[in-house]
Amino acid sequence: MVRASQATTFSASAYFDDRGPHGTAQPITERVNPHSRPIVSYFFPKGVGEFHYGERHPMKPHRLTLTNALVMGYGLDKQIHHIYNPRPATQVELEMYHDHDYVEFLSRVTPNNQNEMRHLIDTFNCVEDCPIFAEMYDFCRMYAGASLAGARKLCSGTCDTAINWSGGLHHAKRGEASGFCYVNDIVLAILELLRYHPRVLYIDIDIHHGDGVELAFYHSNRVMTVSFHKYTGEFFPGTGKLDDNGANLGKHFCLNVPLQDGIDDEMYLTVFKTVIEDTVTAFRPTAIVLQCGADSLGCDRLGAFNLSIAAHGECVNFVRKFNVPLLVLGGGGYTIKNVSRCWTYETAVLVGADIPDELPATVYDPFFRDSQWKLHPPLTGRVENQNSPASLQKITISIRNKLRYLQGAPSVAMQEIPPDLEGLLADEDKNQEERDEERGSGFAGESRGDRYISRHEYFEGDNDVDQDDCPPLSGPKRNSISSSTRKPRSKRTRGRGRGRASGAHGREDGEEVDEPGGSSSAKPGKTRGRMRSRAKPRGRVAEKDKDAEDVDGDVGGEPESGFEPATPVDVDIDV
């Protein structure tokens, strides 16, 4: 007998689908070798998919939760080297690109006080496409912090590929919101990369033009932006025509590939691979940022292309093969079941894992019931293709002509490094030499803070200018420099003896030495300098040579030896 409460099982409830003949993917159990390359890092801020733009708004952060569930369901977390829950970005980090007033507004505005801040809402364009919703500022800090964390990992060399599907909001401007985007995490990440990498290539495969990133680096030759998008002049944002090339130093460092409705896989991949390969060859980037907006897929709520998930992933795979540090970000995408499948497949491409077409079992199975739980549903052929081979060839020829003006990758040896996005720290204590260098003083670099003094050498401070800077004598004889070649000096109350003394027999500074015959010179073979003494009676000439030998002995000389002492020093002698 079966009780009524046992008539239905847990799996047969309305919230869980029985797939019947359709298979279920089993998760990968083999873990990646921690020493294998490339090293992939996956950034997913906890709770980033719990925010809500509004009931009828096309942007659904919940797509991030679906994506993460599929990634974990396939067992791709076993193939990822590092998985991070990054900290949110700080206000100081956001203000490295955005205006202070704008960031301050984002931190203060809420649905409860938006009526009191109506004038600021209009000023910062937070209307219609960019509504005010609960905890909006926290959402911006989360996805921006993840992109910054990925950029830092790439700069430090701890990973080769960084993935942040919550980022890629490329429409936000310096002082206003635009196109569902409030904070431009891409610009912040590129600024972080520029602290280490001389050249950064930004690639955008969103159906909308990446106008916010292009505008931020429109005058820079260190960042080349390449955007593949739909352009009719009226389609949002209305920018990105073929003739937009950049300005000033950034002339020809801004490339746009305007496309028409209905482009298919073959045409898109042909123009993408041609343009990107030529760009990488000419620009030679040291880091690449790839924005993978999934609204370029077929059947997207706001899109008009016919791309399949496989073709979209092939673009990611093509960029990955350049073996350049790569930051992969999300972006647009408004049919959330297709967005989650696309980014899951591209995660597998980036880690080099093969996953089956069947989806794994997750609590979100009802989202994929209409496609029979397949990873690659048919998405193509829904929109008429308005692109012709001739129009695409015209675009590629125009791009190649622009790249010819580059004349090699730009050098950045004298460029100023952008400041640290982690915040401006207090200036460290600097010595006088560093302060002179900042002021451009001509004396910068000439002072010596730590002067080297040889062992047993007597040094009187900065006034001691009698240092022996000459190379050591090579001859074995002590009379290599004879004192007889020097002219007798006049009377002097205190001077420096030019004789050399060993460390063991060195005379104390200021110790007196008596020598008869003040004007006489010492014997060439026994001393290298004249030792001046106090005045003595001239009648004692017979003891002259004996006293001279005593002086040699006192200063450490070896009268009968023909070798140099081990450590030469200067000795002061009162005369």
Evaluate the radius of gyration. 39 Å
- Count every helix, treating DSSP H or I runs of 4 or more residues as helices: 13
Query: Roughly how much helix do the residues carry, as a percent range?
Result: 25-40%
Average pLDDT score: 78
Order of helices and strands: EHEHHHHEHEHEEHEHEHHHEHE
The overall strand count is 10
Shape: globular
Structural class category: alpha/beta
Report the biggest beta sheet as strand number plus sense, adding barrel if it closes.
Answer: 8 strands, parallel
Going across the biggest sheet, name each strand in turn.
Answer: 2-1-3-8-7-4-5-6
Low-confidence blocks of residues: 1-10, 421-427, 440-454, 467-544, 551-565
Question: Would you mind describing this structure in some detail?
Answer:
This protein is of the alpha/beta class. Helices cover 26% and strands 8% of the residues. The protein is built from 13 helices and ten strands. The chain has helices at 62-73, 91-94, 100-108, 118-123, 136-156, 185-194, 211-216, 265-283, 309-320, 336-351, 389-404, 432-439, 544-554; strands at 40-43, 82-84, 161-164, 200-204, 223-230, 254-259, 287-291, 326-329, 494-497, 571-574. The strands form two sheets. It has an eight-stranded parallel beta sheet with strand order 2-1-3-8-7-4-5-6, sandwiched between helices. It has a two-stranded antiparallel ribbon with strand order 9-10. Helix 9 runs parallel beside helix 10. The termini are far apart. Residues 1-10, 421-427, 440-454, 467-544 and 551-565 have low confidence and may be disordered.
